[in-house]
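Weekly structure sync, notes
Attendees: PL (lead), two postdocs, one rotation student
Agenda item 3: pending single-chain targets
PL asked that the sequence for the first pending target be pasted directly into the notes so everyone works from the same version. It is reproduced below exactly as submitted, 142 residues in total.
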Amino acid sequence: MRRSLKRWFVIHAVVSLLFGLGLYFYPARLGGLVGWTDVDVMMSRMYGASLLALSAGSALAYSAHTWDEVRVKVALEAVFCSLSAAIGLYGVLFEDAPRFVWLYVGLMDVFAVVWAYYLVQQRAASRVAPPTANGPLGKPVA
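Predicted structure, written out during the meeting:
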């Protein structure tokens, strides 16, 4: 597995851990810090729990050795980050969400692009024909 993907798992684990802990343990305080006045504490905690689970998944994925071990995780993250970025963008454009949400949208966009990049790269790599034991002109090597 590519070393750069492992680095992204670490970055994602840390970012998700920080936001997840804040939302899980201090939803109203975190909401106040970023200008969100109408905080649904229970929904914030549930989203925080989701981020903590995704953080744990990234930490576990870091220890994987093959693409097959992390393929589903990367696909899940690509979908999750894309949907999160889309709803965050909707919130700042149409729902009067605080400006801090732009940071969130930016982070989710970066992660969505990263995960999609690895999915596309791996798909392209899997289409390359595997090497054969044939020599020049297609004759078997003895």
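Discussion points:
- The radius of gyration is 20 Å.
- The chain has a mean pLDDT of 90.
Action: rotation student to compare against the earlier draft before next sync.
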